[in-house]
Amino acid sequence: REQHRPRVGCSTLCLPHMGSYIYQRRWVKLDADYLRYFDGEKDPYSKRFIPVSSISRITSIGDQKFEVITNNRNFVFRAESDVDRNEWIRTLQQIVEERKSKALERTSISLTINGATDLVDKSGFLELRGFKHKLFVVVAGDKVFLYKNAEDYRLGIGITYIEMNLGNVKEVDRRGFDLTTPYRIFSFSADSDQEKEEWVEAMQQSISEALSNSEVAERIWLVESNRFCADCGSPKPDWASINLCVVICKRCAGEHRGLGPGITKVRSLKMDRKVWTEELIELFHQIGNAVANQFWAANVPPSEAITPTSSSQERRHFLIAKYREGKYRRYHPLFGNQEELNRALCAAVTTSDLAETQALLFCGAAVNCATGDPQCPTPLALAEKSGQRLQMEFLLHNKTSEMPRLEVGGSEEKPYSVPLPSVTHNGFLYKTPSMAKPVSERKGQEEFSRRWCTLQDGILSYYENDRNAVPNGEIKVEEIVCLVNNSPHTHGIESTFEVYIETERLYLFGLESPDSAREWLKSIAKSFVHPRAEELLALDFERIGRLHYKGGLNLERAKEGWFALAGSVLHVCFEDSERQEPLQLRKLQELSIQGDNEVLVLVERRRTLYIQGERKLDFLGWVHAIQKAAGSSGDTLSEQQLTESDVPLLVDRCIDYITQCGLTSEGIYRKSGQNSKTTSLLEMLRRDARSVRLKEGEHQVDDVANTLKRFFRDLGDGLFTRQWGQDWLRATALEDEEAKISEYRRLLGTLPTVNRATLKALINHLFRVQRFSAENQMNTHNLAIVFGPTLFQTDGKDYKAGRVVEDLISHYVKIFNVNDQEMKKQQDEIMAIMKMREAASSGTQQAGDFICTVYLEEKKTEAEQHVKIPATMTAEELTFEILDRRKIVMKEKDYWSCFEVNEREEAERPLHYSEKVLPILHCLGTESYLVVKKQMSMENMLIYLASRVGDCKHGMMKFREERNLLGLGLSTGFHDRYFILNSTCLRLYKEVRSHKPEKEWPVRNLKVYLGIKKKLRPPTCWGFTVFYENEKHEKQQWYLCCDTQADLREWFATFLHVQNGGALWPSETSKVRASRSQQDSRLGNISLIPLRGNESEMRSSVAAFATDPLTLLRNV
């Protein structure tokens, strides 16, 4: 906000250049917070801003010039005249003095100069298109600040800031996102996918804050009852029903909207600023949740009440009963007597008794009833004459309110609790008879009959012709469960679509006009899709409908969600989510069917979604459609199944196999495999690479290598693309190596994302292969001869293609900007492979051993220990191995243990001393590692267990569930729950007095980790993260918080006690140390070899230990 008094004008800015000052004309603005300069008067974003609070003084230095002196830097300006200069100096000095006297601390000044970093929501380096170097970006409140570097941020001197009230954030690719304003698009790029997600989330929060105004909310919350949702009790509700005068939470507000404006008028406390007049705010002080609920919730049975954790369906049922039906209201004594109710209302509005007016109005009194007074014909006029402002406000907001009415008829649950939009459409359609089976054969044109069809009042009717008054048949839109848009010419009619209904019937319609068919599709979809899923209607969907799914904490109860399939993306609107979430089907880690074609399992990033087939007919269609969409759809790179890093799964599978089994194979990639095996393998990988597992013994190295080469040779549009391929070849003519590398880097940036990621993965692989050239005889030149013609799809007569590949391998580090950490990791893996090959060839390596990196006390390079892990090694043996290497003597009360640390979850778990290490390595993610350190709380836990009475533990803890997949599950903060832990199970109760547990989990299926990630803002620092997996491999995750450290220690000790039969610590450690076999130390410092395979294979491998530990490597 610019003040009128501070001068806003233009000046010439003095910039140092080649030892002297060159003056550049800049438009300069001064407001209460910043002195900013711009390229021009109309530019919305500055070139530089100087915080007013950092200015220490302003001095005149002659010749129309003046100097602005800050704490760390000076800025010289030259005005157009001495008069203008003096005016600038006077205004600057005045505002600086005012600033100092009032000690104002605003925005980035308070964030940087004063060191108050708690106001910063997100900060760090980002690439911004148009700048050579990364900028330091800060998201703080409702603004985003850009700085040249972290030092400028510390000083408070930045480039510009972006007001987020006009901003919009959109994800562009794996690491890129755009911040769009009406004046400019800021294209940012983060260092990783996870970093990008965090930045996007922070900026979206900033936009929300910019659009909100907390002043009204704070005033409404001054009344204690308004600090909690009137319906479910959630804290700090920021929505309200302005006619019912209740303050409600966001989730209840969504269900209120579904009741319609005749029942409840929903407005935001923070965003709908114009609504909140002084009278309305005062009305909420007088009525609010306390008075309103004395009427609306006077008779709520405890069994029907809802809580902050209630589902959308439970909220919907409760709110319909509460407000639409008035089921729980306190009936007025005059209820049923219309004349007396109206007379009483006329009397009440002349007083300050708002509760009486509310009770009368919602028990049947007419808001516009006749008063009998010609001068004041309505209750509103009576209230105005009596000077009752709040009565007038209440009546105005309820002029169109409907009186609650109990539903008459059956109580059968309907699929919709809210009215669907009324859609009208009509015209001729071609139709076949309804079917009870999927359409498996092409329908000829002669099988379709031309019918006049109408969509009106929630019914799709079809008639013999447009003159008939009686329909041949009808379809109620509320019974439609799925709508399918078939590909053109699927049947004898050009454009066809299918309608599935609840009674397992399928209707096939068609039209010769694609545009007309599309209009019908949109109209039918709009008529049956729930309003909360209306986002899906904007998609060019192939299939849309409702299905049941499992997810979140409650895996026993299936929920209803809305799904739309568009291309290779499945868009989902979950029951407890307000926005649709896209699921990239080609990037799934697993896609499988469980049971008798009853459950479709989709696994993405270790998260699982279970889609259930309630109705067989439409579910089978969904299964086939999703399976097809999740597969490869063409011969270009972007049409392949992909990894999370955008590399085709086919390429990733082949590279992984050759890395593990073929790096030392002589003539790798030069020798050809068997043509028939190559053809068969390539066909399998193209069809579904996700289901193919390459295993040594079953597949030959040369066959796999030949498959990879053939894939690239047959690739549509090529790896380098037809558009840019010749430019890559021309770059080889550049004689200057640096110029050539620079050109390669430029061309790399022009490639599509998938091509760029694939090229880097391939060259990285070839870089490794040539490191083994002494064994495989394939140096950089030999690899280039093979891969040049393959990648450029040429005949090989011209070596330019080979030269490009040779240059890419030789300058891999520079061209692909590989940092030292990546290089070290690759070199360690190469060293490890060489060592293992040597050990294998000498016959000294035992089958079943793996090499693993373990840290001592903390994760840092100097603390690394590389250990060979036999199949039988326990956590205790691994701990002693690490301590022996560092010659650390374990004293009497030193409780050294091996911990599994999960960096992503910011949690750790001490392994039980008898736990086998190798199965844990199989399950470790990329963000997890093992560390050996002292378990500081073990002595206290042992004392507690020795002194307690009984084996149970019970008490209150704060509970929160983790989101499961794409927003599944609850995310409403921590809530008090009562827990009982015994020797077999953990039970959760809503409160201490509850007799029946809400949940119950077998203890043997729980994994308990100490710590909770800070992003969740736990109420205390004493908490743990719990993972649960049942026999069907369905997973859940939640968090528990204790009030004290002692309480946390006692709960954790009890968990360990019941899970390990009471044995927390070995009674005699010396025997283990003495009996432990000596490890082979000849391998030295060797880094972790990646353990391959999907989750199912890992589980199978772990299970194999129980019977034969040597099973693991027999197929490797």
TrEMBL record:
GO terms for cellular component: plasma membrane; trans-Golgi network. It holds the Pfam family RA. Residues 205-339 form the Arf-GAP domain. GO terms for molecular function: GTPase activator activity; phosphatidylinositol-3,4,5-trisphosphate binding; zinc ion binding. It comes from the Eukaryota. Residues 848-937 form the Ras-associating domain. It is found in: Cytoplasm. This is ArfGAP with RhoGAP domain, ankyrin repeat and PH domain 1. It comes from Falco tinnunculus (Common kestrel).
